[in-house]
Design goal:
By secondary structure, the protein is mainly alpha-helical. It has helices spanning 6-14, 18-38, 42-77, 82-107, 117-120, 124-146, 154-189, 204-213.
């Protein structure tokens, strides 16, 4: 009798889906082979085969639906979970890289050297937001090159860094950028006129509104150099700092 499901077992092994293979595919195939061995008529064997593969598909969908919660519990909430361990081991080299980035960026800063350290410090959040994902990625790679025991937490670390970066940019970076622009303008001109926010000083919701309002219809006759309509309601506004 033909051995059912061997290509499926090899495929799940090749893709690294060992949990799906061991908990769903292999037991379901064992039942399928048992039913096919007991089914005498050809139609009965065909029906048993179809029912067996349908059960594998259904169980795989259920397995996929509960796997994220299961992985979160096993990789992050248990004692000695690989996620927190990997994050703790990757943070020190990542912080060193971020510190080097800040030192190099601020030492090579080409702005007005008369601005004080307080104003220059407002550049730090933007530099951190730009360098944090790369620094964490390098820290994770360095950690995994020494020990692969925390590899299961790598995806969770990536998602955590992505969420943190988005929240940090929305809540800190845009305000620091606007504060820097305003402070630099005040120091350079001696005036205290409030500056409108540019694209780097807008939160995601504000940037979406500005992008939707920046239409060609707001400037019917668009000059070659760009549109300069009232309230800068054009695509050029989003590229103006």
């Amino acid at each position: 009798m033909r051995d059912h499901g061997e290509p499926l077992v090899r495929l799940t092994s090749l893709l690294g889906l060992t949990g799906l293979r061991d908990s769903v595919v292999v037991p379901a195939l064992a039942d399928l082979r048992h039913e096919c061995a007991e089914a005498r008529p050809c139609a009965a064997r065909t029906w048993a085969t179809l029912r067996g593969y349908w059960s594998i598909l259904s169980a795989s969908l259920v397995f996929a639906s509960v796997q994220p919660a299961r992985s979160l519990r096993e990789d992050w909430s248990t004692v000695g979970a690989p996620g927190p361990r990997l994050l703790r081991q990757a943070l020190p080299p990542a912080l060193v890289l971020i510190a080097l980035l800040l030192v190099i960026s601020l030492s090579n800063w080409s702005g007005d050297q008369r601005l004080g350290l307080g104003i220059m410090a407002l550049l730090i959040p933007g530099l951190m937001a730009a360098g944090l994902p790369q620094a964490i990625a390098i820290g994770v790679a360095w950690t995994l090159s020494r020990s692969r025991s925390g590899g299961r937490g790598a995806i969770g670390v990536g998602l955590l860094v992505a969420v943190f970066s988005f929240v940090f940019f929305e809540g800190v970076v845009v305000e620091a950028n606007q504060a820097y622009r305003q402070a630099a303008f005040n120091a350079a001109t001696g005036r205290h006129t409030p500056l409108p926010r540019g694209s780097r000083e807008m939160a995601f919701a504000d940037l979406t509104v500005a992008a939707n309002s920046a239409s060609v219809a707001a400037c019917p006759i668009k000059p070659t150099a760009g549109c300069s309509c009232a309230q800068s309601s054009s695509a050029e506004f989003l590229n103006t700092e």
